[in-house]
Task: inverse folding
């Protein structure tokens, strides 16, 4: 199939008004969450982290909202995400977080994307490339203060920073690190990381030059470690009203902005001894009312929730029975007959009851991040307020 027709097919699916399963994002809630976060950090600058389709909320629409709300910059994981934002007209600074390979640098420069410089080798290559092009790269020097993922380890940061300062085509916009354990306010590791990072960045002052933007705070840092806020914070998941871990202390009244809705597509009464779905892993003990929901792991709903998850119908929790299929799953409504077309809440509120992303993450034995970012493009996104 030609690329264009593939794209059209994709557009038709994700923008269809016909699909009974869809995501609703409340823009007003996003705005309120940002307001609460800003109050909590004494109105410091914010880099809104919109990796992985803005944690499932829809990259472009959410980015334009934040630009309107005056956030200072945006963070993404991939150059591709940054390019989509530039093509959509975003003019805010955009920082690409992911480990970048040399061959991606020309494209980052072409689209005016800032990026992490992770190593001496990358620093040298960027300098050489920019010299031949007579360009200046806008970079953030990445120090590994204990996350152990990417960046120059704190012990070597002095010569790294000095080399960056010596490079004629490197514009150092920031110096940063990433916290490994900040969702636990009691974990001493976060204090150690902050100390190590502050020691590393003190080199700028010692060398008598201006210190660029210092940043290290993810959502956990923003919530529980005021010492990590520094010059700009980088929250992701809390912008969307979701806490990093189901067990996190809820110190801000954040509200989830995303609702995952569907409708009963089919309903049947079954006799005792009737089995449901692939592998026949669930069999009715009594006469039961079973509704089918047109949503499945093909949309990013976890198959692990087979015989574990719940949804809301008529304000009541209905347990999933049998295996979650690619496009459908079944729930047990016990004695209550349902009609096709009845509203189903998979994530969100109905009649005062709610099912949260954190709760689903617990059932699925994962973290809320994975639940949100797995919700894929097949689900249309509708924006309200
Ligand atoms: C470098 C960096 N900063 C900030 C964030 C935001 O993290 P969180 O969603 O926990 O706020 C991430 C996401 O993992 C990240 O990779």
Result:
């Amino acid at each position: 199939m030609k690329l264009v027709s593939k794209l059209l097919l994709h557009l038709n699916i994700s923008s269809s008004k016909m699909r009974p399963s869809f995501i609703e994002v409340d823009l007003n809630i996003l705005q309120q969450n940002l307001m609460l976060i800003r109050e909590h950090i004494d109105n410091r600058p914010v880099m809104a982290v919109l990796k992985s389709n803005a944690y499932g909320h829809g990259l472009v629409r959410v980015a334009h909202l934040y630009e309107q709300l005056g956030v200072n910059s945006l963070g993404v994981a991939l150059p591709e995400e940054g390019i989509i934002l530039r093509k959509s007209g975003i003019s805010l600074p955009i920082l690409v977080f992911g480990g970048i390979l040399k061959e991606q640098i020309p494209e980052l420069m072409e689209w005016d994307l800032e990026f992490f410089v992770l190593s001496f080798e990358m620093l040298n290559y960027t300098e050489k490339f920019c010299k031949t092009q007579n360009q200046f790269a806008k970079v953030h020097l990445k120090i590994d203060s204990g996350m152990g993922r990417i960046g120059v380890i704190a012990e070597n940061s002095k010569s790294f920073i000095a080399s960056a300062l010596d490079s004629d085509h490197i514009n150092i916009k920031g110096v940063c690190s990433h916290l490994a354990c900040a969702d636990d306010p009691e974990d001493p590791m976060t204090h150690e990381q902050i100390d190590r990072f502050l020691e590393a960045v003190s080199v700028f002052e010692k060398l008598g030059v201006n210190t660029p933007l210092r940043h290290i705070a993810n959502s956990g840092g923003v919530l529980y470690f005021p010492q990590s806020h520094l010059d700009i914070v980088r929250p992701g998941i809390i912008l969307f009203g979701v806490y990093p871990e189901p067990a996190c202390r809820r110190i801000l009244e954040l509200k989830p902005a995303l609702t995952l809705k569907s409708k009963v597509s089919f309903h049947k009464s079954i006799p005792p001894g009737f089995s449901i779905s692939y592998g026949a892993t669930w069999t009715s003990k009594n006469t039961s009312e079973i509704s089918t929901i047109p949503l499945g792991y093909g949309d990013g709903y976890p198959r692990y929730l087979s015989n574990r998850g719940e949804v809301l119908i008529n304000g009541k929790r209905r347990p999933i029975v049998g295996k979650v299929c690619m496009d459908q799953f079944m729930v047990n409504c016990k004695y209550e007959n349902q009609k096709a077309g009845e509203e189903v809440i998979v994530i969100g509120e109905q009649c005062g009851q709610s099912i949260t992303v954190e709760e689903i993450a617990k059932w699925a034995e994962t973290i809320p991040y994975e639940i949100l970012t797995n919700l894929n493009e097949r689900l249309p996104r509708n924006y309200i307020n």
In short: Residues 49, 51, 97, 178, 218-219, 234-237, 244 surround pyridoxal-5'-phosphate (CB under 6 Å). The chain has twelve helices and 20 strands.
